[in-house]
Amino acid sequence: MISRALFIVAAFAAAFYPTCKAQGYHLAQDFSGPDFFQGFRYNVSDRDWNNFGNVHFISQSDAEQKHMTFVDLNGRAIISVDNTTDGRTDGNFGRDTVYLVSNNPVNFGSLVVFDAVHIPFGCSVWPALFTQGHVWPEEGEIDIIENVNLATQNQYALHTAISSGTCLKQSNDGQTGKTTNGNCTVVPEQDINTGCVVQDASSKSFGKGFADSGGGVFSMLWDAAGVSLWFFERSSIPPNIDTAPDPSSWPTPSAFYPADSCDPSTAFGPQFLTLYIDICGAFAGAPELWPTSGCASAAVSKCDDLVQDPANYNNAYWMINYLRVFESDSSSSSSSSPSRSGSSPSGTASSGSVSAGTGTSSTTGSPGTGGSANQSSAIQNIPIVAYSIVFSSALILVLI
């Protein structure tokens, strides 16, 4: 009797085993090493039309000639602001910087993994890594890394359109970070673009704190459960995150936007990776934020007062080990996946609270100048629970 019971239980286990495995992911896009910049286009603009920054977004040829984008001897991608041009004799001076947009989209069901050693920081500096749809805000935006000035805690955010319906983030459930704004909806004509924001709990997730601790890894999962974002300090990066990531085994995410309060399959179209550095503008230079930024003084009453001095931008650079996009092994057959196709955004888009503007350049001195889960696995866990129930029921019935 016992041997017959074990046989039947084993048969049930074999039948249901495939459904209880963790979701698999395969590498879809790889931005790393000598080819890092080949997957991007340079969004060129003589001014920041969206976020009113004091910058010029320059071309690839100009950025390479001025040593503002390159891959260093360690295989790390460097993206920097001009930190050599002195603009103190020009009252309308704007500084050269770079705005990169990926050639190919990130699709529903994807996992983005980003490993960096240094994120741009400093008074007036506004860096961002985010994804955006071809049509903004109708196809949405997901902010993975963004903050300004001397902040040491990263901010995550979603930006959605009125046409997407209600998208809210009103609690801290399922995340370690703190929700600071709950309305994801963007209304450009009313100048509403804060997005639903979550502040990371770690003081090593941005700025000097990030750089001093050796950097770390950020990840974003966009699937049927919602949008989940993680930050891992260098000492706590999950194994195989760069080659065979398994979000179901990761700890609670830093930020979690559940599907029941914002439908991830309709609020976002195909997303394009965007990396840039802005200066001042609507966020870093916001008059209501500047007095408490840690940057204001009698000599620097507003953000614009800093732009002309190149020494302010010695830490305004990205140093990146890799940026990778993994797609779900089952995403091609998922019935909940959006069927829309996308093309790279053609204009200068907003990010979280983002921009484009005016400048001149070249660089020396700092590395940037070339001087030499659980929530995300909620859907995945259902088959495991179902398997356990069937397994237990089979055993009870056989023994009876």
TrEMBL record:
The keyword Oxidoreductase does not apply. Keywords: Signal. The keyword Signal applies. PROSITE patterns: GH16_2 (PS51762). Residues 333-366 have a biased composition (Low complexity). Residues 10-288 form the GH16 domain. It holds the Pfam family GH16_XgeA. This is GH16 domain-containing protein. Residues 1-22 form the signal peptide. Residues 333-374 are annotated as: Disordered. InterPro entries: Beta-glucanase-like (IPR000757), ConA-like_dom_sf (IPR013320), Glycosyl_Hydrlase_16 (IPR050546).
